[in-house]
Amino acid sequence: MTGLGESRVARRYAGALFATAQRLGKVAVVEEDLQALLDARRESLALREVLESPLIPADRKREMVGRALAKLDELTRAFVDLLISKRRADALPAIREEYRRFADEAAGIARVHVTVPAPITDAERAQLDAALEARCGCKVELQVRVEPAVLGGMIVRVGDTVWDGSVRGALEAMKEEMLAESAVAVAEAA
Questions:
Q1: CATH of region 4-105, choose from 2.60.40.1530, 3.40.50.300, 1.10.520.20, 3.40.47.10
Q2: Is residue 119 classed exposed, middle or buried when 0-12, 13-18 and 19+ CB atoms within 10 A define those classes?
Q3: In sequence order, which residues have a C-beta less than 8 Å from that of residue 143 and are 6 or more positions away?
Q4: Number of H helices, E strands in the chain
Q5: Tell me: the pLDDT tens digits for 4-24?
Q6: Beta strands per DSSP E along the chain
């Protein structure tokens, strides 16, 4: 699933699943089941082919998937059955991501991705965690990735918002500014 329409579909399915799970007090159980399902799908080529093949009839898919995923909660199994009958099983990864967003939002959690040029210490991580919680106004789950190309500083992403405080970002901004000034100077000289 990559397109805008497809992401809307994933959000709609995830929203309905989340609302039902929340009503039944199964938000965490369903989230774990969805992750287990995606892990099984990633590890088993046979399961992936069964879920995604348009050649296998829906009732046969439900039977095969039901046996493979017997340990899942009944709500999750019913949801997977629905996806199979609607021919949307290929949407599972996107639905899982949307479901996680609903669960995080309900719990007041923001997932923050930070890219730094070198590993940070536990003390730096705690300080960064506290600063981001103050900035976001909620609890954050910090994921730190080391990428030497950042050069210095850091890049912080919360949802669709990106704060680029990296040396690389500053250099790119300076380059763009210099190119723009150069273009204006050439245009004025002409």
A1: 1.10.520.20
A2: exposed
A3: 111, 112, 113, 114
A4: 8, 4
A5: 667 889 999 999 999 999 999
A6: 109-116, 139-146, 155-158, 161-164
SS3 5: helix
pTM of the entire predicted model: 0.70
- Residue 154 CA to residue 163 CA, distance in Å, equals 8
- Domains of the chain: which residue ranges? 4-105, 109-189
Report the C-alpha gap between 32 and 96 in whole angstroms: 10
Look-up of token digits 């106004």: 137
CA distances for 59 relative to 45, 50, 150, 182, angstroms: 20, 11, 51, 65
Closest CA relative to residue 69, chosen from 86, 96, 50, 55? 50
pLDDT of 92-132, one tens digit each? 999 999 999 999 989 988 888 999 989 999 998 999 889 88
Residues linked to residue 141 through DSSP beta bridges, in sequence order: 111
The whole-angstrom separation of Cα 57 and Cα 40 is: 21
Residue matched to tokens 């082919």? 49
Q: Which amino acid is at 84?
A: I
Question: For residue 135, what are its two tokens?
Answer: 């900035």
